[in-house]
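Students often ask why inverse folding is considered easier than folding. One informal answer: many sequences map to the same fold, so there is more than one right answer. In these notes we will look at a single instance of the problem. The structure comes first.
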């Protein structure tokens, strides 16, 4: 009988830990402008939720977060702290609204504090971004770069689907249908993202950025600014 053997079960379990909602970093407290998009009527139903999330994954995460994650991870492999600091600064500078930057900084600090409490040996960074802190955790826990990228996209997608479930609203079955649709594109998002050249890193998503800016002053909201 053929058996599939997990090469590093501890790394797989560590990845599950890193992307778990139980990780105390506030991942599931943010909507990244999605809450405003729903409140403003830009996104009204399951089909529009799917289109919005696919757009962010393919035009945003693929060209920004994944290549930044790659560069931070590779800097750690090469023990090149200067490069890690550089890409950490690039990650923070890439956030186009106050809300998106605060999210990145707050989540980065939260994970950094956790890793410090877990007695992990960390590079010296005054303000780690979320991408940088995530890459450090993945590297230290011997999670492969590709698996870390899969986990990063999965965690983001799951968070956004929970936003849609609460605000559109969507039922649990619709959320599972959307999950089935979206996970099919994650491999392409990751594979393309890992090949993005350094000079091409960045995204242009005015709808998401405007939604994030508007969300900062939205009268009633469930998710953090």
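Output (designed amino acids):
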């Amino acid at each position: 009988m053929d058996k599939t053997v997990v090469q590093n079960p501890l790394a797989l379990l560590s990845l599950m830990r890193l992307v778990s909602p139980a990780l105390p970093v506030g991942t599931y407290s943010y909507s990244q402008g999605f809450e405003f998009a729903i409140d403003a009527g830009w996104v009204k139903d399951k089909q529009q939720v799917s289109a919005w999330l696919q757009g962010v994954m393919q035009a945003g995460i693929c060209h920004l977060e994944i290549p930044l994650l790659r560069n931070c991870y590779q800097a750690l492999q090469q023990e090149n702290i200067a490069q890690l600091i550089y890409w950490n600064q690039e990650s923070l500078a890439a956030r186009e609204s106050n809300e998106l930057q605060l999210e990145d900084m707050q989540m980065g600090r939260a994970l950094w504090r956790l890793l410090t409490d877990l007695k992990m040996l960390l590079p010296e960074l005054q303000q780690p971004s979320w991408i940088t802190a995530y890459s450090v955790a993945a590297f230290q826990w011997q999670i492969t770069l590709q698996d870390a990228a899969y986990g990063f996209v999965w965690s983001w997608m799951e968070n956004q689907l929970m936003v849609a479930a609460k605000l559109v609203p969507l039922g649990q079955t619709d959320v599972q249908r959307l999950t089935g649709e979206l996970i099919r594109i994650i491999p392409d998002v990751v594979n393309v993202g890992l090949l993005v050249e350094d000079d091409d890193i960045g995204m242009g998503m005015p709808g998401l950025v405007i939604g994030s800016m508007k969300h900062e002053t939205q009268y009633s909201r469930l998710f953090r600014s």
